[in-house]
Q: What sequence folds into this?
């Protein structure tokens, strides 16, 4: 009796390694191309700035050389003043954003879910929030003074429009298909809100929070230009008064970098909380 041994033939190892290497290279290229394209324009501006400073196209009193701005940045980091100004600004943004976002989320939900609020309270509030937060500062100063309460309230006010609108629209404009789904499954009002309405509204609300944070960060600089003795906005004012524009440029660079980083952090958190958006191709 002859025994026949059948052995499984595994695919060659080298082609598999080559395919994996090609896939990794393609993923790396797809990740690096947007980053390089995004850096190309700032780097070109930096090169033009350095060339203009070296050739004397613009007086150094108006546009300091990049080397001087970098040295000022290092000096501010070394003596700890930049860290102190940055900490003060971040605390103001955190307090104002937390105050504004909490109140605006609650009010936006009330506008969407409570007809009386939508009919009686929402129209005057909508009209008031259309006025820029900075226009309210003279009036708010009469009640709050010029201390921290004024800055926090103005920052919180600047958050209101995007957060309220995104929350009200996301919770109130539920597609008919999702409404029919809740009716077919005989869900209670609380179950519809938890299982259908909130998952549908979460991406739009997250977008509104990102826009609100951007508004808060922009308002921060302006309120710190007004009666403040610490923070990045004050650092800009101090540099302008001393005609040390290198300090102004350092503060501007820190504000821009941190604002971009905060937005990128919220985007990453949004993708982590809503992974189905990446699968559907809805990257906000």
A:
């Amino acid at each position: 009796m002859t025994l026949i041994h059948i052995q499984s033939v595994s695919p060659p190892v080298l082609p598999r390694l080559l395919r994996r290497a090609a896939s990794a290279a393609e993923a790396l290229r797809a990740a690096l191309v947007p980053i390089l394209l995004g850096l190309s324009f700032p780097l070109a501006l930096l090169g033009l700035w350095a060339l203009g400073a070296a050739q004397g196209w613009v007086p150094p009193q108006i546009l300091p050389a990049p080397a001087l701005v970098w040295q000022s940045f290092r000096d501010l980091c070394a003596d700890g003043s930049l860290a102190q100004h940055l900490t003060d600004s971040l605390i103001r943004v955190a307090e104002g954003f937390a105050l504004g976002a909490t109140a605006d989320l609650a009010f936006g939900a009330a506008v969407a879910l409570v007809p009386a609020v939508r009919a009686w309270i929402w129209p005057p509030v909508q009209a008031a929030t259309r006025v820029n937060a900075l226009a309210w500062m003279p009036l708010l100063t009469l009640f709050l003074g010029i201390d921290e309460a004024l800055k926090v309230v103005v920052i919180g006010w600047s958050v209101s429009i995007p957060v309220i609108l995104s929350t009200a629209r996301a919770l109130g404009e539920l597609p008919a298909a999702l409404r029919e789904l809740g009716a077919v499954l005989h869900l209670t009002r609380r179950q519809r809100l938890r299982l259908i309405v909130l998952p549908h509204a979460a991406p739009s609300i997250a977008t509104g929070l990102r826009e609100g944070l951007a508004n808060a960060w922009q308002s921060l600089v302006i309120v710190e230009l007004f009666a403040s003795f610490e923070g990045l906005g004050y650092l800009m004012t101090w540099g302008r008064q001393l005609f040390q524009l290198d300090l102004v440029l350092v503060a501007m660079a820190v504000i821009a970098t941190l604002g971009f980083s905060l937005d990128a952090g919220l985007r990453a958190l949004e993708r982590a909380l809503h992974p189905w958006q990446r699968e559907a191709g809805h990257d906000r």
